[in-house]
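PROTEIN DESIGN WORKSHEET
SECTION A - STRUCTURE
LENGTH: 492
TOKENS:
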């Protein structure tokens, strides 16, 4: 033990607490930045290319649908919230718009037979329009003022219940906080637009809020919540239990008429029963560049031979006076430029790597300031995860004893963190404390329960209360300070 006098012992507990949480939430909560990884039911024009979800494309009088495959149960008091980034690119010149699209909650993923093209947005036809057996709620960014849908303009957002005739609509605009007034927003501009749809199941209020996505796209994390206008564009009392069936699907629908648009979903966050996770705008893919509008008359062909091709830079060496020295000069500068490019490329690559592997701290981590340990330090502290450092194996990982080479620690704190770690690593997820409870333990608002084999459930690391006391006793002589004490939150 004397050999360790220069060291302060800290018990490192790795608790991976998160796997069951994620799988339980996967059904009613998700975030997509790359739709190739999304589990979607698609039909019609809907495709996924380069990670983008395209709802409609270059086909006249057609529809496209994409639904999250897993159905969700809604009760009378269910809330839900979603936000997504979309881009609508008109395919005509001079510019005229296609039909638009909608976020949809529907009782089935197959709306092909029901929804028609043009103003129906792939949802409603003359056969089913305004029929309560539809069980459809939709929020539409609509880019065509169809007469049969009594649309107000060719640039509006509407709430549809079982019918293409919106129950509420407004011209697309967003509230600018600094100016204190509404600013109009062109939906079919080809630019990325954020839309939030929030339903409170107690208040029974549905809000729809728009905002342009800042350009150029931020390159460090920027949460969409930070740019959400405080005033929604639409806010309406809706009783979803009058609309929804028991199980419902969420997704998107869109249509084209004689005119068409490329309509894309670039990112999508959804949650049933609470606020959807904010999108990180730096992660949202850019919309594809709008294709050059088709030219109606054939382009004037350039008069033959009279003009040389204007774009090519002169590549031939200087004319008649070229000699050995000028050739050497060219060769020299070429090599120098080549080397410079390689070095520049190397620097860019290193910066990229540094950024790629940079640690991202989330807000709660900053607040409670737990320190992180690199794998290298953990490896050293546990002597390379040696067998004789192994204290036991919990339900979600092995627990090793480790010594960190520096820092001052309070024995009581160390003891507490050790206990919390053990509570986290129980095999039965229900016995493990929640993150909220852990924070309360750490702040001292709730006392950490004592640990025994009887209460902690099967799969506890093989150490007891007494062992905690014994193992930390040697450290209690040292002059500990609170700031350096930390616990590893293994997974999130
Ligand atoms: C759309 O399709 C038509 C024919 O199918 C083609 O002529 C036109 O170039 C396409 N437009 C774009 C923007 O791809
Ligand atoms: C709306 O669609 C109709 C038919 O598809 C078209 O004639 C009209 O020009 C469109 N309106 C706009 C504003 O693009
Ligand atoms: C609505 O739910 C009932 C059973 O709860 C089912 O019979 C019916 O087919 C559903 N309607 C639709 C449109 O899916
Ligand atoms: C839709 O149906 C309701 C009754 O279910 C009726 O009151 C309303 O007028 C209808 N709307 C239209 C546009 O037909
Ligand atoms: C509504 O649709 C159902 C079948 O989906 C049909 O039996 C009923 O007649 C329709 N109601 C109206 C008013 O069209
Ligand atoms: C779609 O149409 C089918 C019949 O073609 C009907 O059974 C079904 O209820 C309809 N679904 C919706 C959501 O309207
Ligand atoms: C709001 O208005 C201010 C002042 O005109 C402008 O600088 C800012 O870009 C606007 N914000 C958004 C999100 O458009
Ligand atoms: C909807 O907007 C109103 C007014 O801004 C607000 O009071 C309410 O809390 C919002 N509801 C939801 C579900 O966002
Ligand atoms: C801005 O638009 C919202 C929603 O349409 C409306 O309630 C509000 O009165 C408008 N505010 C101003 C200053 O025009
Ligand atoms: C909502 O609709 C359901 C079904 O029609 C009804 O039982 C319930 O009372 C309504 N809730 C409110 C608050 O109106």
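SECTION B - SEQUENCE
RESIDUE ASSIGNMENT:
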């Amino acid at each position: 033990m004397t050999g360790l006098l220069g060291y302060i012992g800290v018990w490192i507990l790795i608790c991976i607490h998160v796997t069951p949480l994620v799988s339980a939430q996967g059904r009613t909560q998700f975030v997509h930045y790359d739709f190739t990884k999304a589990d979607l039911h698609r039909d019609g024009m809907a495709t996924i290319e380069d990670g983008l979800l395209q709802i409609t494309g270059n086909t006249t009088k057609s529809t496209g649908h994409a639904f999250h495959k897993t159905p969700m149960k809604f009760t009378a008091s269910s809330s839900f919230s979603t936000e997504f980034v979309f881009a609508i690119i008109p395919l005509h010149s001079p510019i005229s718009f296609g039909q638009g699209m909608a976020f949809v909650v529907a009782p089935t993923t197959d709306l092909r037979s029901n929804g028609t093209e043009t103003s129906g947005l792939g949802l409603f036809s003359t056969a089913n329009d305004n029929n309560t057996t539809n069980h459809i709620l939709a929020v539409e960014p609509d880019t065509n003022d169809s007469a049969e849908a009594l649309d107000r303009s060719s640039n509006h957002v509407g709430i549809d219940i079982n019918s293409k005739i919106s129950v509420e609509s407004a011209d697309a605009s967003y509230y600018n906080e600094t100016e204190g007034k509404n600013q109009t927003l062109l939906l079919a501009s080809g630019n990325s637009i954020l839309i939030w749809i929030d339903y409170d199941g107690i208040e029974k209020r549905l809000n729809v809020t728009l905002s342009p996505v800042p350009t150029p796209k931020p390159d460090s994390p920027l949460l969409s919540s930070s740019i959400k206008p405080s005033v929604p564009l639409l806010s309406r009392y809706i009783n979803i239990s009058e609309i929804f069936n028991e199980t419902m699907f969420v997704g998107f629908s869109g249509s084209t008429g004689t005119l068409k648009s490329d309509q894309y979903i670039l990112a999508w966050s959804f949650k049933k029963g609470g606020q959807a996770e904010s999108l990180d705008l730096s992660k949202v893919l850019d919309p594809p560049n709008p294709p050059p509008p088709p030219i109606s008359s054939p382009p004037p062909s350039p008069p033959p031979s009279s003009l040389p091709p204007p774009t090519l830079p002169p590549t031939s060496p200087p004319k008649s006076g070229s000699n050995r020295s000028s050739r050497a000069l060219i060769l020299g500068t070429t090599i120098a430029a080549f080397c410079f490019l390689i070095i520049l490329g190397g620097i860019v690559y290193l910066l990229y790597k540094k950024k790629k592997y940079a640690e991202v701290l989330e807000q709660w981590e900053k607040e409670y300031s737990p320190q992180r340990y690199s794998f290298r330090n953990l490896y050293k502290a546990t002597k390379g995860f040696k067998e004789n450092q192994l204290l036991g194996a919990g339900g979600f990982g092995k627990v090793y004893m480790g010594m960190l080479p520096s820092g001052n620690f309070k024995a009581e704190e160390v003891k507490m963190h050790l206990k919390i770690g053990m509570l986290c690593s129980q095999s039965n997820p229900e016995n493990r404390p929640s993150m909220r409870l852990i924070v309360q333990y750490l702040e001292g608002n709730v006392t950490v329960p004592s640990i025994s084999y009887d209460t902690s459930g099967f799969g506890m690391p093989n150490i007891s209360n007494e062992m905690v006391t014994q193992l930390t006793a040697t450290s209690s002589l040292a002059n500990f300070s609170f700031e350096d004490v930390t616990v590893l939150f293994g997974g999130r």
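SECTION C - NOTES
Helices lie at 19-25, 324-356, 363-368, 375-381, 411-424, 435-443, 453-456, 465-473.
The chain is about 20% helix and 25% strand.
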